[in-house]
Every structure is written in structure tokens, then in C-alpha cells.
Design brief:
The protein has 23 helices and 23 strands. Helix 3 packs parallel to helix 5 (about 110-125) and helix 4 (about 85-105) crosses helix 5 (about 110-125). The strands form 5 sheets. The chain has a 6-stranded mixed sheet. It is globular and about 100 Å long.
Length: about 775
């Protein structure tokens, strides 16, 4: 793969890490204090930072570094994750996402906002409240060691044996740099033996960062054993050759030391012992020469980096660069050091290692997966759809030419039909994805709109793992965004008003997804003021959307908000008031073959319910005949079929009829008359009744002339290939090659209740 492909993989991994980050922060905001949740949040930021460093994304690395430091304070119980703290961290997660998007798409971010959050994060890391005026400086400060580091001075080392390549390893230590004082000498001393494996670096961990964190536990001195370092011609770029022996004086105990290596313990050889328990002469003597080393180089001290780069080196510059990179294995420094030798090759290797590490981590956590271009999946789905059509045609041809019905050809066709169905189900499952990414995106919108309006609102999500076709998910974000903005801006009251009404000052918006009868239902509910029907009605009259003498039910008034150009906002703002929003929502949902309904109770809130198909590719349907036309009725809408009897048919009013079904009455709807296939109503006794359930319309008995059978059909968009036809959802191709129309059950039921099939002809069509 070239660098662009590796970079694209990195950004794909970032999306997953950002989702994990926000999910964990929201759990913590709800009171979850499980250490694993905190660690998952920390790992997400750490992984983004490590990968970003490989590509030189300095802005992203800098912000992630400060964010990571603050999260580390939470992880080590130095900072209590209160609501105020988590509010800052959620905003920081948003900025981290913005920086990632800017790095990927070449855009920019609000520098003032990001710098302000850096100050707040640093203030939290120093134990200050988020609103404290004495916040730290915007730029992250390097963390110094316990004692000031002397200026680096060249030290002559004793000659060491050279290998065939002429490379001479330079042993060094951090002795005297962390010099202890009399107080520290009375503290327990631990000896830590630390030898990384190559997996530690492959997973984005950093040996030198671990040593820096260890220096914060207590006073320490470090020896590095470089005896295993081979010659340059035998060097494995992904290998790990160094071993550290660290002496740590601390009164925090062994657990504090182990916490430093918490995420690396499985990828290294680690041994921690009290000095008094260590065996005398238990390890070979390490040929060491004291060389001062300033760990603050890891915190962005550029002069220190340059000084290290100019320090005396062994005969082979390439070998020195590799050794320096192995010692200070921070990804950003790796790219800088290697650039002096073989810039392009080293950078590519570093990027590949970072990307592969991220991929390996996710693969280990979530099982084996494979990334496939969406166009390939779409092509596969289209081909399977054609396979279904051809299989139906073949079956139809055999049935018409074989009256036996038990031939081997028929048996083979039945097996082919079953296999085709299994293939289609498996292919469709590839496109099925949980709605969680869309729901998580709404969390940020709620926070931003709540801040803009001065409201306190909590978003509760349920059913995030409910799966639906990716096409539906991609087109769901826009209508949901409009609805969320509307609920926060118009629905939920201000904290002062809610308190005066005896409500909790914090409003609640609940977003729920669930499966029902082969469809997905998404509900957006709020506990706000509900719809002010009098205001809605008056606004509609003022805007000439309805006549002043219109007699509307509560449901019809509620549905007026879906009319184009309708808005109840008193003034135009950045959030609303331009008359664009809910009409867009309705059109978007209808374009997906769905419906949206409103249920509102003044003073208690509103519920918006969207009913969407699980897939836009196939459906199981009942093929029926109506006035010589062939239609397909979605099977998920049919409750039962029955043959009407004359005694069960009752007239109601001038043009309405009811059918008696088990001691209850249900309206009888002539599909042919509704769709204008015929001028007069047909005799129900001569046809078949399909008892259907519609969203918001209850049960209706749809009268058709005959049933041809039940089939799985491939959905073909009528709007894309022809134009929108009222009462028709889509089209399909039958086994005999004819085009059949798929009935829009909800629209037909709505028409039976007096609503026009042509939206532009009646205000009631907004329902």
C-alpha cells in the first residue's frame, strides 16, 4: 500500500476511536466509574495521538497530548470526573473530532475554541476548577524530572567490541540525572527490569514515555543494556533490542509502579522487586557509561531535540539514528531522527507500523473484519437482485410448461429458490449496520444547541445496536439533525421555566430505535412543552397555508409543522426561524419509503415516530390483481387475508363500508377506486380482503380482486427511473418480465381517511 492508503486506514480507525471515546465519556457522565470505561477512553485518545504522530499531524498530536494528560489524572484518581469535568472533556472530544476531520479533509478548526479547551484541560490536570481564571498557558508545558538536568556534555566511553558491520553500540545510563536527596534515600527502593517485545512498539506504546511516567512515581536512576543490538545489516526495523534496569525510590508502593506499565505489561518482560529482596549479583554486570538524558524532550522541548541530534555519534550515522529512535521511540521523534538518514523510507515504515498496530488492536478487540469498498458491495447486491429476478422467471416458465408439478426440474428449482434466498439474505446482512454512529453524532448536536440556547439537556439513547441497511443510515442523519435541533430549540423549556412549572431543570431528549414487523421504528421524544396547537394554527393561517375557517383535528394541527415554509420561531436565529426543517424531514423520510407521525401532549412533551424499511433493496410481498393491474403489497403490513361474506359487509354513510371481523368493525378500502383504476367501487364479495396495519392509521381491510401468490421482489426506484406516483412506493420486475407496482399502504390508508394522494392539493397531506 502507498502512504495515502495507509493514511486512509488511519482515519478510518480514528472514526472508531472517536466513537469509543464519546461513548465512554457519556457513560462516565451517567455515573459509570468502572476503571475499564476510563481506560477505554484513555486508550482511544492515546491511539489517535500515536497514529497522528506518524503522519506529522502536529495540531492533532498536541491537543491529544493535553487531553491524554488530563484523562491520565482521572485514571490515576487524581481528578474526580464530575459533571463539570466531563462537560469539558465532551467538548474536548468534539474538538478532537474536528481536528481529525481537518487533518483528513484539509479544512480548519476554530483555533480560539481549541486553545480555550487546552487551557481548561490543563487547569483540570493541575486540580483547578474548569471555570478557574488561573488556567494554565495554552501551550502544553514539558514535565521536568525531579531534579534539574545538567547541560549535556560528551563523555568518552570505553571501547566496545565492534561487529562485522563496524557498528559500535554506545551503552549509556540516566545515572545522576535523577539524583536523590537525603529524604528520598529513606524511602523503599525498587528494582525494575523492563525489556520490551516488538509487539509493544507495534501497538503504539512508547518505552521512553513509560520511563517518563515512571519518573513521576519517585526518584529513579536508569541503566540501558544495549548488548543485544545487532549490526545495521542485521537490524530488524520492527525488533526490540534494549533492556532497562531502573532503580526507583518511592513510598507509593509496588502497585504505583505496575500502574505505569498497565497497558504494556503483556508486551514486555517485567520484573519488580524490593532491593532488599534482590539477589546479590543476580544479574550480569551492565557495561554502562553515565550519559545525562532530559526526559522533557518528550513534552515538545524543541531545543532539547536539536541538542540530542547534534550530540557526538558513532561512526555510522544510520546506526546512530536507529539507536536514537529505539531509545526515544516517540513516533514524532522517530520521523524527525530518521529523516537525516533515509527520510522517505523511515517515515513510510513508521506510518505502516502505526497503521498496522491500530489495525491489530482493533482486530484483537472486535474479531476479524475486512474492509470492502461500498461500490463493490452495491454491485454484488445488484447482481443478486438480478439473480432473484432470473430465478423467478425460470420458475414461472417451468410452471407454465409443466403441469406435473413433481418433476425433477421443479425440485431443482425449489432448491435454487432456497439457495437464492439464503445468498440474498447473506448479502443484505453485509450492508446491515447498527444505528449507533448516527445516534452518537446527535449527542454533539444536543450539547452545541443546548449551549447556544442556555438550556440543560440530557440525551438518552436506546437500541443503538439495532441494525438497518447502510443506505438508510446514511440518509437518516439529516432528518434526525433537524428533529434534534427542533426538539432542543422549540420543545424543551429553559431551566428557569421548567423549575417554575415543577419540572426537573434538566430536560430530557430520548432517541430510541427498535425493530417492528420487518421495519425499523425510530422515536424521538422530549419532556418539553409539547406543541402549542393554537400558535401552530394561527401561524398556518397567517402564512396562508390553511383557510381561517378550517376545521382541523388535533392530529391535523400537529402535522401542519411539516408544511413547507412553516415555522413558529418569533425571530430568525442561527438555529431556526427560516421555515426550513420539518418539511425537509418529511421529504427525506418519504424518500426512504418511510412515514413520520407526531404524538404531542401540551405541557408534557412530544414524540416523533419514524417508520423506515430495513432495506431499500428487497422485500417480501403479496402479489395481487386490482382492476386488471398487478400490484405488490408489502408482507410486513399484512395481518391476515380473508374472503368477505355478504353478511359481514355493512354500509356506513354514503360512500363508506365496514367489514365485520370477529365481532369488530374495520373500514373496507377499495384499492382500485383509491388509485383511480376504476370509477366505481367493486363488490367486496367478489374479491379478497387484506387486513393491514399502517403507521398512525390503525387497521384497514384493503379490497383486491385476487391474490396471485407470495414472492420476494427486488425494489426498483420509481422516482429515479420515472417519477413519483401517488399511492405507489416503488416498482419491481416479476418472473414473467412484467413490471409490477409496489403499493404504498400508508398512503392508501391515509387516502381512505380523506387525505389526498397528491400532497400539493391539500394541507391535510402533511399528515
Amino acid at each position: 500500500m502507498d502512504m495515502n492508503e495507509i493514511k486512509e486506514i488511519f482515519f478510518q480507525e480514528c472514526e472508531e476511536q472517536l466513537a469509543e471515546l464519546e461513548s465512554g465519556l457519556l457513560k462516565m457522565n451517567d455515573g459509570d466509574r468502572d476503571p475499564e470505561t476510563v481506560n477505554a477512553v484513555f486508550r482511544a485518545v492515546h491511539s489517535i495521538k500515536g497514529g497522528a504522530g506518524a503522519f506529522g499531524l502536529d495540531d492533532l498530536v498536541s491537543f491529544a497530548h493535553v487531553f491524554e494528560t488530563t484523562l491520565d489524572c482521572v485514571r490515576s484518581n487524581k481528578l474526580e470526573p464530575t459533571q463539570d469535568v466531563l462537560k469539558v472533556m465532551l467538548k474536548a472530544a468534539d474538538v478532537l473530532a474536528d481536528l481529525t476531520n481537518a487533518a483528513r479533509d484539509g479544512g480548519s478548526v476554530d483555533q480560539a475554541r481549541s486553545k480555550g479547551l487546552v487551557k481548561e484541560l490543563e487547569a483540570l490536570a493541575h486540580g483547578e476548577l474548569p471555570s478557574a481564571s488561573t488556567a494554565a498557558e495554552a501551550a502544553p508545558k514539558p514535565v521536568k524530572a525531579a531534579a534539574p538536568a545538567p547541560a549535556p556534555t560528551p563523555v568518552k566511553a570505553a571501547p566496545a567490541p565492534t561487529d562485522d558491520s563496524g557498528f559500535q553500540p554506545i551503552p549509556f545510563s540516566f545515572d545522576d540525572h535523577f539524583g536523590g536527596d537525603e529524604a528520598s534515600s529513606s524511602m523503599p527502593e525498587y528494582e525494575v527490569s523492563f525489556k520490551p517485545r516488538s509487539d509493544l512498539y507495534a501497538k503504539g506504546n512508547d518505552a521512553t514515555l513509560l520511563l517518563r511516567d515512571l519518573s513521576r512515581v519517585g526518584e529513579m536512576s536508569i541503566h540501558c543494556n544495549m548488548d543485544a543490538l545487532p549490526g545495521l545489516d542485521q537490524l530488524d526495523p520492527e525488533g526490540a533490542y534494549f533492556k532497562w534496569t531502573i532503580s526507583v525510590r518511592t513510598d507509593k508502593g509496588e502497585d504505583a509502579i505496575r500502574t505505569v506499565f498497565e497497558f504494556a505489561e503483556w508486551d514486555c518482560e517485567l520484573d519488580i522487586r524490593l532491593v532488599e529482596d534482590a539477589a546479590v549479583g543476580g544479574d550480569e554486570e551492565l557495561p554502562m557509561v553515565p550519559v545525562p538524558f532530559d526526559l522533557s524532550v518528550l513534552d515538545g522541548d524543541e531545543p532539547a531535540v536539536e541538542a540530542a541530534a547534534e550530540a557526538p555519534r558513532p561512526k555510522s550515522d544510520a546506526a546512530a539514528a536507529v539507536a536514537a529512535a529505539e531509545t526515544a521511540s516517540n513516533v514524532t521523534q522517530l520521523a524527525s531522527a530518521a529523516a537525516r538518514v533515509e527520510k522517505k523510507e523511515a517515515a513510510a515504515a513508521a506510518a505502516a507500523a502505526a497503521a498496522n498496530a491500530a489495525a491489530q488492536n482493533n482486530a484483537a478487540a472486535a474479531g476479524q473484519t475486512i474492509r470492502v469498498d461500498l461500490d463493490r458491495v452495491d454491485r454484488l447486491i445488484n447482481l443478486v437482485g438480478e439473480l432473484v429476478i432470473n430465478q423467478a422467471m425460470l420458475s414461472q416458465s417451468v410452471i407454465e410448461n409443466d403441469n406435473n408439478g413433481a418433476s425433477s426440474i421443479n425440485m431443482g428449482l425449489e432448491e435454487l429458490q432456497q439457495l437464492t434466498r439464503e445468498i440474498q439474505d447473506s448479502v443484505m446482512a453485509i450492508r446491515a449496520q447498527p444505528v449507533k454512529p448516527v445516534f452518537q453524532r446527535m449527542s454533539r448536536i444536543v450539547r452545541e444547541i443546548a449551549d447556544m440556547t442556555g438550556k440543560s439537556i440530557r440525551l438518552i439513547t436506546e437500541g443503538e445496536n439495532t441494525e438497518v441497511d447502510k443506505t438508510v443510515i446514511d440518509k437518516l442523519a439529516e432528518p434526525l439533525t433537524h428533529m434534534i435541533r427542533n426538539a432542543v430549540d422549540h420543545g424543551v423549556e429553559t431551566p428557569e421555566k421548567r423549575t417554575a412549572l415543577g419540572k426537573n431543570p434538566e430536560g430530557t431528549v430520548r432517541l430510541t430505535a427498535k425493530h417492528r414487523s420487518g421495519r425499523i421504528l425510530i422515536e424521538l421524544a422530549d419532556d418539553g412543552a409539547g406543541i402549542n396547537r393554537e400558535k401552530v394554527r394561527q401561524k398556518a393561517i397567517d402564512n396562508d397555508l390553511i383557510p381561517a375557517d378550517a376545521n382541523l383535528s388535533d392530529e391535523e394541527i400537529d402535522n401542519l409543522i411539516f408544511l413547507p415554509g412553516f415555522s413558529t420561531a418569533d425571530k430568525i436565529s442561527d438555529i431556526s426561524g427560516r421555515g426550513v426543517g420539518m418539511d425537509v424531514v418529511k421529504r427525506s423520510i418519504q424518500a426512504l419509503g418511510g412515514r413520520i407521525n407526531i404524538s404531542s401532549k401540551p405541557g408534557h412533551g412530544s414524540v416523533f415516530t419514524m417508520s423506515l424499511p430495513l432495506t431499500l433493496a428487497v422485500l417480501d410481498g403479496m402479489v395481487v390483481t386490482v382492476a386488471g393491474q398487478t400490484l405488490v403489497v408489502p408482507l410486513t403490513a399484512i395481518v391476515e387475508t380473508l374472503q368477505p361474506e355478504a353478511a359481514a359487509i355493512h354500509s356506513f354513510g354514503a360512500n363508506h363500508r365496514l367489514i365485520s371481523i370477529r365481532n369488530s368493525f374495520c373500514p373496507l378500502v377499495d384499492v382500485g377506486r383509491i388509485l383511480n383504476f376504476r370509477a366505481t367501487q367493486a363488490n367486496p364479495v367478489d374479491g379478497v380482503a387484506l387486513l393491514v396495519e399502517s403507521e398512525g392509521g390503525g387497521q384497514r381491510a384493503l379490497m383486491v380482486d385476487a391474490i396471485q401468490g407470495q414472492r420476494q421482489v427486488v425494489i426498483k426506484s420509481l422516482e429515479a427511473n420515472y417519477t413519483h406516483v401517488p399511492g405507489i412506493a416503488a416498482a419491481t420486475i416479476l418472473g414473467d418480465g412484467r413490471v409490477a407496482l409496489i403499493l404504498d399502504v400508508d398512503a392508501v390508508v391515509g387516502a381512505s381517511r380523506g387525505q389526498s394522494l397528491k400532497a400539493e392539493m391539500s394541507y391535510a397531506a402533511a399528515g
